[in-house]
Amino acid sequence: PILALFFLSVYALIWATQSANYGSTKVGFLVSNRDVSYYLTAIAAGIGWFWAQAFFLSTYQAYYNGLAGALWFSVGNILSLAIFSYGAQKIRDQHPTGFTLTDYIREKHGIAMQLTYTAVIMIFAIITSSYLLLALVKTLAIVTGINQILISTLTMLSVFLLSFGIGFRASIFSDLIKFIAVYTVLVLIIGYFALSGHSIDLAGIKQHGLELFGTQHAWTVFATFGGAFFLSNIINPWIDPAFTQIAYSSSDKKSIGSAFKLGAVIFGLKAL
Question: pLDDT for 242-255, tens place per residue?
């Protein structure tokens, strides 16, 4: 049943996007014909931060380190989208018919800077893709019991088919599906605890209380996790081309910054 659902989802995405010919032109393939609505832009920006590893990190930090762990996981992610909203708006205003951030860099700073940036994001892409794939495969293997090699093969195959067959629209549609799934599960979990009378085990918060700043615990969390994680999240949107492509895909050029801020709210509701 799980494999059938997997292939059905891939087929549905291919059919929905191919029917609009998104993969047949450069504009369609790279920036989804620039027809992504305001709210879908916000969803793509916010849900794009819901990566597999984040579920492990957020759960671990909140459970063991309480509010201090939850704070440092959330604040960098939320602020990164809010800050990038100004850059996304500026890039689209200055280069309205562009496609990627590397394209924009070449236009503004020359080919040498473009090649340097391209080398950096290629290294970044290899590293992030590797640990995200590992996190996803581990999660699905635990939940479904399917062999990890089979899951990783299907995952890479689906990404290949969707990305090279459809283009960026596949990512937009995938983010929409992820948005529905994440918030449906969130509502169901909250509803379950509310109706069943069970209490949530808040071990970290019970142990450390409101130790966000000014205590040895708060300083330890910041020094061992918070500071580095905060800086990495502030930087990430500038080296992840997907965020710039979201900006270039938006149909409303004047509200891109606002859409990214709404994306920060969408992420924050789930993270907090």
Answer: 888 899 999 888 89
The residue written with tokens 């891109």 in the block is 256
Name residue 166's amino acid. Answer: I
pLDDT for position 19: 54
**What stretches of 96-221 show up as alpha helix (H) in DSSP?**
101-109, 111-144, 148-165, 168-196, 203-208, 216-221
Comparing 130 with 222, which gets the higher pLDDT? 222
Two structure tokens written together for 200: 């949530």
Residue 149 CB burial class (10 angstroms; 0-12, 13-18, ≥19): exposed
Provide the CA 182 distance to its chain's centre, in angstroms: 12
Per residue in 92-113, pLDDT (tens digit) is 998 888 888 888 888 888 899 8
Kindly report the pTM of this predicted structure: 0.77
Residue 71, classified by CB atoms within 10 Å of its CB into exposed (0-12), middle (13-18) or buried (19+), is buried
pLDDT surpassing 80 at residue 136: no
Six token digits for residue 111: 């080919």
Within 8 A by CB and 6+ apart from 72, the residues are: 61, 221, 222, 225, 226, 227, 229, 230
Q: Is the dihedral of CA 253, 129, 24, 13 positive or negative?
A: negative
98 half-sphere exposure, CB direction, 13 A CA radius? 25
Return the closest-CA partner of residue 241 out of 131, 117, 73: 117
Give which of 252, 232, 249, 230 is closest to 240, Cα–Cα: 232
